[in-house]
Amino acid sequence: MNPKKIGIWMYTNENGHVIRQQIVERLQRRGCVVHYDFDMRECHVKDGQVYTKDGVNLSDCDLFFHMNAEQRNAHQHDMLKMLELSGVRIVNDHQSYSYANDKFIASAILRRHGVRVTPSALIPMGEEKEVLRELLGGWGKLVVKPRDKICAEGIMMFEDFEAFYDFYLFAKSHVPNLYVEKYINFSARDIRVEVFDGQVVGQGFSRVMGHRFKTNVKSGGHAEFIPADEDAKETALAAARALGITATIVDMVRSDDDGLPYVLEVNPMIGVFYGQHFASLNVPVPPYFAEMDALKIELIARYLGDAVGAPALPADGAPWRLDDAA
Fold first, then answer.
1. Cα gap 264→117, rounded to integer Å
2. For the ATP-grasp domain, which residue ranges apply (predicted)?
3. 51 pLDDT higher than 70
4. Beta-sheet strand order (sheet of 63-67)
5. Residue 236's CATH number
6. 5: helix, coil or strand?
7. Strand pairing class (63-67; 5-10)
8. Domain of residue 137, CATH code
9. How many domains, in total, are found in the chain?
10. Domain range spanning residue 162?
11. Quick check: bond before 92 cis, omega within 30?
C-alpha cells in the first residue's frame, strides 16, 4: 500500500517550527509522508497541479493542513483554491476559510444563522454625508474594520463625526467601500474559544487590553487563562457551524449593556500555540497554555492521520476522539 501524503503549511515564528515538527513526527510514525518545508507564497501551478518552489507536487497529497495567518497573500489564496480544485482535501476548506477571512461576509452569515453579532454596515464610497452622520449618531461609536486583515491591523474607532468623515474622504481614493460595526462597550478583556471538528477545545481564555479598545497581543494585550462561560462556548460552536469551518478560534466580547456575548471574529484557522509564544519570549509559560499546546498538537496530528486512514500505532488503541484528550 502506498503511504498517505499530507501537506502542512504552518507558521514558524514564535517557536511555531517546534510545534510543526511535533505534528510531523507523529504523522511520520503512522507511516505518512509529510511535505512541510515550503512557502505557499512561492508555489506555482502547472497544468492544474500545484508545485512548491523545489518541485514537490502538492496536488499529489491526500490532505493539506494550513495554519499561517501572518504570511498569507493573494497568491497563496489562489494556491489554496487550486489545491482543492486539483482534488486535495483542505483543512480548513477554501469556502469556509474564505468566509471567515472576510469580516463583512462572515458577519452576514452569522447573523442569518442567528449568531449574535454587532450591528454593521458596508458603506459605498459615494454615500451622502448626512447618511453617515445618522449612522454614527445612532450607534454613538463605530469601528472601521479592514475586511481581511488580522491582529487588529487597521481597525479604527470613531465617536466624533468630523474625524470619521475626514477619514472617509481620505479612504475614498483607496478602497471601494468601508466595513463598519457598532462599537460594543465591554470591560477590559475579550473571550476566546477554540473549536475543532465541532467541539470546544479546552476551556477558553481571554486577552486583557493594553490599548484603549483593542485586545490583540500586537496592540499591547496579553493572554490570560480566564475560562469562558458556557454561553460563550455555545456561541462559538454556533459560529463555527454557521461558517462550516473545522478549525477556528472565535473572538467575542461580553456587552456591558446587556451582559451577552457578541462575536467579533471567527478566525479562518485555529489559534496560535500560546505556550510556545510565551517560551519564545523567554518568560514562564502559564500551565494552562502549556497544556493547550500539548492537547492541540495531539488533536491536529490524530485528526490528520485519521482523515487519511493512516494505520494507528499500537499505543494509540481504538480510533481517537477529542473527548479522549479533554
1. 7
2. 107-294
3. yes
4. 33-35, 5-10, 63-67, 89-91
5. 3.30.470.20
6. strand
7. parallel
8. 3.30.1490.20
9. 3
10. 119-182
11. yes
